[in-house]
């Protein structure tokens, strides 16, 4: 019989809730978020993965304030950074910071090399190609006949194809990098498994970057290499790390939003019918679906560089902060009746699903185009689309850093 | 209404250009440029919206 050691089992502050908190309804944020917004907008929780405390910030106003504050850092190597997934110590020491985890001036320099790739003009020019890709995938679905898993057939394939073309990554390698990417998004794997997935993907991208250094193509990675040759801000490993962020960030998030958005519209037939009747409602529907599902609370982790006051609470230098955009996007003071999906909601665009401040998602307008074209085309070409299994049988990604649904069987 | 921007702080989120292309544009480097600093009244509401959506609050409005 093992001896009982109460001191070793009691967390430092037993009253603090665990984080992350699970959703109890697949369509709503964890219930506790609403209580926190009302009673304690800035509060402490214990991170399940490390057992260490971090500050949760839950209202729209305060999430914006923290993410817009230059006294917070995104540097995941700083002590106190609120890690939400296990990274082996030695890996953390050696890991290169990526754009998402850089502070100015490094962040500013790298972002400026990338933003010409994502201008409004470029995104408009991409539309016909995205439309072709979506049409081809829907042709394939129709040829195969239902039921099909919409995640594999459309939701993952479309953003994966688009980001591969943009980056100059051969799409035929997609089964491999999609698997590594999915592992990296999973909360429940061991530090070793996480490290192995990152190393496998980096080793793949390392070869690709080396090939492009020798023979550049007409793609984002090659253009980054060219600019960097003229005015170096990054070494080879930095470029590999940048390519990993673009590849993973470019398909994992959009894929989950495609599946969830389709499901959200199927579960709200009146709103789906409105979108089918009037495609001009689509851009608003995209914003509302982004707000409603708010698929990631993980990209906005910060650590305070100085003591900062938020809602009367002093967060001390070195303490971790989790501004929860999923909570901000359900803040009733900005979005009345927040747990209701309303594609005509006037204020939907004020959502923080892409983050806020200097790290706001660089690919947000690419994501908007993909979502708009997928939702619009899918329900126009397959107006009788429906779930092939009861909603209760769907498996949601409760364990993942990016929320979604594992499979979405549909038929027509 | 007078509009001004601070291009040095631009992170090219592009929401201003998507919402009010009559007022905002991006140069080849993706940085915000102003097409008109005194937009007509019918654009005032959308320009106010771009100012509130800009993630680095670089759009200044005086009315």
Automatic annotation (TrEMBL), chain A:
Region: Disordered; residue ranges are: 1-24
Question: Which segments of the protein form a coiled coil according to its record?
Answer: none
Annotated InterPro entries? Cyt_P450, Cyt_P450_B, Cyt_P450_CS, Cyt_P450_sf
> Which terms in the Gene Ontology molecular function aspect does this entry carry?
heme binding; iron ion binding; monooxygenase activity; oxidoreductase activity, acting on paired donors, with incorporation or reduction of molecular oxygen
Give the SUPFAM superfamilies listed for this entry. Answer: Cytochrome P450 (SSF48264)
Matching entries from Gene3D superfamilies are given as: Cytochrome P450
Keyword list (alphabetical) reads: Heme, Iron, Metal-binding, Monooxygenase, Oxidoreductase
Q: Which Pfam families match?
A: p450
User: Which family is annotated?
Assistant: Belongs to the cytochrome P450 family.
Please report the name of this protein according to its UniProt entry. Answer: Cytochrome P450
> What broad taxonomic lineage does this protein's source fall under?
Bacteria, Bacillati, Actinomycetota, Actinomycetes, Kitasatosporales
Automatic annotation (TrEMBL), chain B:
Q: Which Gene3D superfamilies match?
A: 3.30.70.20
| Assigned keywords, A-Z | 3Fe-4S, Electron transport, Iron, Iron-sulfur, Metal-binding, Transport
SUPFAM superfamilies listed in its UniProt record: 4Fe-4S ferredoxins
What cofactors does the UniProt entry give for this protein?
[3Fe-4S] cluster
Pfam families annotated for this entry? Fer4_15
Domain (4Fe-4S ferredoxin-type): residue spans on this chain: 1-29
Q: Name one GO molecular function term.
A: iron ion binding
Q: What does this protein do?
A: Ferredoxins are iron-sulfur proteins that transfer electrons in a wide variety of metabolic reactions.
Q: What is the protein's given name? A: Ferredoxin
